[in-house]
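Section handout 9: paired folding examples.
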Amino acid sequence: MKHIELDDEEGDGGASGLMALVVTVIELLIETMEREAIRRMESGQLDPEEIERLGAQLQALEEEMEAIKADQGIDENVEQLRGDLDSLVSEAVEQVRDQELEGIDG
């Protein structure tokens, strides 16, 4: 199974790697909130004022995350972690699907 490497070349004991992991997880949460906001908008659950307020808040969160990445110099590390996490999730989904198919066939 693939693993994620948090240690880096900075020699800071993995502190910047840990910061990149935290930022990556927060970015994934923001993306999930955006998808939920879109789902709620499309289903008519939000009025125009709520849509405006939610959009402004999500935009502010994204800008803050970009500022943190630039300030910490971890933009490249975050992108690498996102790719690694995507691979891990895809691998896990594939394993679950294979186990389910084995259960159906077996």
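Moving on to protein 2 of 2.
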Amino acid sequence: MVDLITIAVALLGASSLLLPLLQLYNGRNWNLSGYILAAVLGAAILLVAVFTLNPTPVPWFGSLLSPDQLGGVFALVTLGVTLAVVVASLDFQRTSFNPVYYSLLSFTALGMLLLSYSTDLLMLFVAWELMSLPTYVLAGFDKRTQSNEAAVKYAVIGAMSSAIILYAISLSYGLTGSTQISAVAQWYFSHPASPLGGVAALLFVAGFGFKMSIVPFHMWIPDAYEGAPTPISTLLAAATKKAGFIAAIRVLLAVTTLYVVTRSPLFTMANVFAVLALLTMTVGNVSALTQKSMTRLLAYSSIAQAGYILIGFVAFTADPTSSAASLGLTGSIFHIINHAIMKGAAFLCAGLVLMQLKRADLGAYNGLARRMPITAFTMTIALLGLAGVPPLNGFWSKLLLFLSVSSPQFGWLAVAGILNSAFSLGYYAWIIKRIYIDEGESTERVKEPKWFVIVFAVLVGLMIGIGLFPQQAINFASGAVPNVLG
């Protein structure tokens, strides 16, 4: 019997291979491939949703994939963001002929789907590459000098990240004799202070850290997000970055829980994550304050949000059996879902402003509410959500994260998170002031394409709806927590 996940994989695999041929055959009917991929992604999301509610074994993949809710959460998030990017691309790609554009998006979605359910290190690495390689090409699709530089920098950093992860996998296999994540984790539990194990754990942190954009592995993010076409920046910030987090949750939290890097009580993995969370939040927010370009500001803001997500890792690795661990990881997963929605909306707004006004600097947002009211409203809701203003969705996930580290040991991290959120509200509010109060160069109304309006309506509905009724989303996120340790 063929399970629903295998059908979804087959659909995306077929669309990845056949869309370029269809695009060439249909000549100038450029958007046909986009409509087909949107239908395939919609079908895949429906299959994953049904599978998540009624999980069954995945016999075609043996022990390589796990039919758990954790995979379902991330598969739905990443496929949903990819669908929004495809719909937005129907306008971006209307006047250009790129026979492989939608095929590359389909390959990326296929890689993220497999990565979400991977429980074997080799399967995880193959899915990681299947997701990453197409995005190196997509990042340079504008053929501008800036875009090419961004694509080259992104590809070099990505190759370095893959090499580090592969070396960590080889070390883990040499130590444990297995590539199954659960077997590797068991070995780490029984050898909590092995020097080689510590090296492998830190290599996993560095390898996944590049994709998650945590400090000090964040340097490629602003240039890549600014140089890439804006729909692809949305994909990188709201989808592939989340796939990096699922890999980190499945591998890092499994192998580093209660792990001691050295025999000193100061060098525990919980302390390592706490320092990384503090640095990532602070560097991202301080750097965002000084930016003149909206895409670079959103890129640094995305780095800061990765720091908030890491707070849940701290609570979990400190004591995975405590209530704070469950609360922290629920907060991390919930904030990953929220961040995908909020950051996806913000990047698509920035992309539409760039497409219609031909400007990416912050001055383009002066008086935007008069020229593009739907875009202005969506951007405002997204920025307030990112700042954690109640009752929007970002408030609840940040609240869970801060409560999870309210213990005497990590209370300072909760205070740092609250101060960073307050600090970020300063530059978000500065943009909102530009949108609604400042005078722009023109008050002439600018067309907002219908596909963007539809996507904006869905995303705003999710941000407000989850904010007003958060319990169902919290229950959905908390349901994935027991799957972390296999």
